[in-house]
């Protein structure tokens, strides 16, 4: 909820992470229309910087918009790292891809909602909802986001997350083969690489798990991108998730 001091409304601080600089500039520019009572705090392009700034009390926003596609990182991992450390930030996942590609993982990672970046009216509604302690998601995922809701209220403390830590660690979902329909067939390691990347693991973390060099994992990922005809790793992951 939005606090008031006397008759004055205290602005809701908003920040965003998106590896598309133009998207960040656009979000900053339209924020007064999306959430009139907001104050733009910062916008960054990398996962590491977003996590660092969010966990720092001096730069912590009350609402963080998290793009689900961040180059070699994922917005899912950003949400998970932040939620493991604090419940004092409302996390809203945003994506240029279909929201159902990321909704389940965003919910399990502790986000309060997910919305398309292209749907401005829905983006405004989602911001208002999570800023007042609610959840926002497509109807088919609404129950999941309620279950994953960390009871965030942007004006202060929050209850502990209702999602047990085990529920948001990599590998908790069944790895379903993505090689269906007319899609080119991915090798086992290529499929597993996309699976683990979609869960928020980095190349180095996957390499450590497999006992190989990070360059080997990167090669599997690049081959998957080529076979799926994707224009980026994030696009390949989105295609794989929408199987």
Automatic annotation (TrEMBL):
Domain HTH luxR-type: 179-243
Keywords: DNA-binding, Phosphoprotein
Residue ranges of domain Response regulatory in the record: 13-132
Presence of keyword Phosphoprotein: yes
Domain of life (superkingdom): Bacteria
Residue(s) carrying 4-aspartylphosphate: 67
The keyword 4Fe-4S belongs to this UniProt entry's keyword annotation: no
Transmembrane segments: none
Protein name: Response regulator transcription factor
Organism lineage string: Bacteria, Bacillati, Actinomycetota, Actinomycetes, Bifidobacteriales
């Amino acid at each position: 909820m939005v606090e008031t001091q006397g008759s004055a409304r205290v602005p809701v601080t908003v920040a965003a992470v998106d590896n598309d600089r133009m998207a960040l500039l656009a979000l900053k520019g339209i924020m007064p229309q999306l959430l009139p009572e907001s104050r733009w705090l910062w916008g960054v392009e990398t996962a590491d910087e977003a996590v660092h700034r969010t966990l720092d009390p001096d730069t912590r926003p009350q609402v963080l918009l998290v793009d689900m596609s961040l180059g070699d990182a994922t917005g899912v991992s950003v949400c998970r790292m932040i939620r493991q450390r604090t419940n004092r930030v409302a996390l809203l996942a945003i994506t240029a891809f279909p929201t159902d590609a990321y909704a389940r993982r965003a919910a399990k990672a502790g986000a309060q909602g997910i919305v398309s970046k292209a749907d401005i009216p829905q983006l405004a509604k989602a911001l208002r909802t999570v800023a007042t302690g609610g959840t926002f998601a497509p109807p088919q995922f609404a129950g999941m986001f309620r279950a994953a809701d960390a009871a965030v209220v942007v004006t202060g403390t929050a209850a502990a997350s209702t999602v047990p830590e085990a529920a948001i660690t990599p590998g908790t979902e069944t790895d379903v083969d993505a090689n269906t329909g007319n899609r080119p067939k991915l090798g086992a390691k290529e499929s597993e690489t996309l699976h683990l990347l979609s869960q928020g693991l980095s190349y180095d973390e996957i390499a450590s798990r497999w006992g190989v060099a990070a360059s080997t994992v990167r090669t599997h990922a690049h081959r998957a991108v080529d076979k799926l005809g994707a224009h980026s790793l994030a696009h390949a992951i989105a295609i794989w998730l929408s199987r």
